[in-house]
Amino acid sequence: MSIFCRFLLASWVCVLSACVSTGHSFNASNIGQLIPGQSTYSDVALNLGAPPEKVYRQVDGTYIAWWMHKTSFINDGFYGRQSVAFEFTAGNHLLRMTDSTNILVEPWARTRLMGLKPSAAVPPALF
């Protein structure tokens, strides 16, 4: 093996060893299928394919489950981050999506997931 090949191999080993991942990797591609009031905590966890990273319990029995995943390459020189948080009732039913970062959801599905009513079309201003 030539010196160049050894150097190249050693360089790749160093680059790959500089990768760091935190949280649970999850699949957010089917989030739009979740329905507030019908979907349960189990449905959400199954849909995302991973358990939440954190769960914040509230005094009234509701709770917020937060899925997050971050991958860093070369000491934060390049990184990818995804997160989504859902609020659940004390009976484990989905109330709403409370937050998301780098999650692609159709606008109509995002509105429904966030518990918002679709807004009526605002007529254009007359001048």
Uncertain ranges = none
- Could you tell me the radius of gyration in angstroms? 21 Å
Mean pLDDT across all amino acids? 82
Classification by helices and strands: alpha+beta
**Helicity level:** 10-25%
One letter per element, helices H and strands E, the order comes to: HEHEEEEH
Described by strand count, sense and barrel closure, the largest sheet is: 5 strands, antiparallel
Count up the domains: 1
Overall geometry = elongated
Strand content: 25-35%
* Total helical elements: 3
Taking the alpha carbons of the first and last residues, their distance comes to: 77 Å
**E-strand count:** 5
Walk me through what this model shows.
This protein is an alpha+beta fold and 127 residues long. The chain has helices at residues 3-17, 41-48, 107-113; strands at residues 20-23, 54-57, 63-73, 78-88, 94-101. It has one domain (17-113). It contains three helices and five strands; from the N terminus they run αβαββββα. Strands 1, 2, 3, 4 and 5 form a five-stranded antiparallel sheet that branches. The protein starts with a helix and ends in a 14-residue tail after the last helix.
